[in-house]
Design a protein that fits this description.
Strands 1, 2, 3, 4, 5, 6, 7, 8 and 9 form a 9-stranded mixed β-sheet that branches. The chain is built from no helices and 9 strands. The protein is globular and about 35 Å long. By secondary structure, the protein is mainly beta. The protein has a single domain, classed as Jelly Rolls (Sandwich). Helix content is 0%, strand content 53%.
């Protein structure tokens, strides 16, 4: 989602600056699949992309670093979450572009997967 969108829920900077300092915040790191050989343990795919996934308990939050030049697509497989303060429910999806990071908070036990396609 571009920051020039009429409903920009992903904004560069803003409230995300504190996340690196918070010991309860973890970065999404469970790779389901990857097109990069260095990502050992992930299911290999033929694409320049990564598919991190997470299972979150209600109240848990994670932080995913991106960069303004990368884009991602986030899908909620189950449960309800907030992404940078905006709610998402089961089977909702969101395109995320032109932001340095996203903060994901589980409103209830949730499963999610992100497709990180790298450079745009």
């Amino acid at each position: 989602m571009s920051t020039t969108s009429p409903d920009p829920w992903c904004r560069p900077g803003s409230a995300l600056d504190h996340l690196r300092e918070d010991p309860q915040v973890i970065e999404v790191r469970d790779l389901v699949a990857s097109g990069f050989a260095r990502d050992e343990g992930a299911l290999p795919i033929r694409a320049n992309a990564r598919l991190p996934g997470a299972m979150l308990k209600a109240g848990e939050r994670i932080w995913q670093a991106l960069s303004p030049s990368r884009c991602a697509y986030l899908v909620v497989a189950s449960g309800r979450i907030e992404v940078n303060g905006e709610p998402m429910g089961p089977l909702d999806g969101a395109a995320i572009t032109k932001v340095p990071a996203v903060e994901i908070i589980a409103l209830e036990d949730s499963g999610l997967v992100m497709v990180d396609i790298g450079q745009v």
